[in-house]
Design brief:
3-stranded antiparallel β-sheet; 26% strand; two-stranded antiparallel sheet; alpha+beta; 114 residues
């Protein structure tokens, strides 16, 4: 995982992730938009390991991925952790989708678009 320069702002970090992922969801490949109310199209920078629990990883590019708002919510507590993400976002990620009972529905690998 690459650490970014010290003192980097959240906005600069988000811009770096948008650029690395080429404005597309790493899960679906769908082009995302920065400012829309449509949660299927709105892009969010999502931390693989939560920034609250791992503040030292807040600006580590390998710990952040571009997802739609809908995908982001599925991956965190708001969505019940139905989408699990493993790996280094600067390399390859593994996405696993579960149903509410914990049954694995599918998994997908996603290489870094660089």
């Amino acid at each position: 995982m690459k650490k970014n320069r010290h003192g980097e702002s959240d906005a600069e970090f988000r811009a770096l992730i948008w650029e690395r992922d080429r404005g597309r969801s790493r899960l679906t490949g769908r082009r995302l938009i920065k400012d829309t109310d449509d949660w299927l199209l709105r892009g969010d920078v999502c931390h693989i390991k939560p920034k609250g629990a791992y503040p030292e990883l807040r600006h580590v590019s390998g710990n952040a991925v571009l997802l739609s708002r809908n995908e982001h919510i599925q991956s965190d507590g708001r969505g019940g952790y139905l989408l699990k993400i493993e790996g280094d976002a600067d390399a390859e990620l593994l996405f696993r989708r579960y149903d509410r009972s914990g049954l694995l529905l599918w998994e997908k690998r996603s290489p870094c678009p660089r």
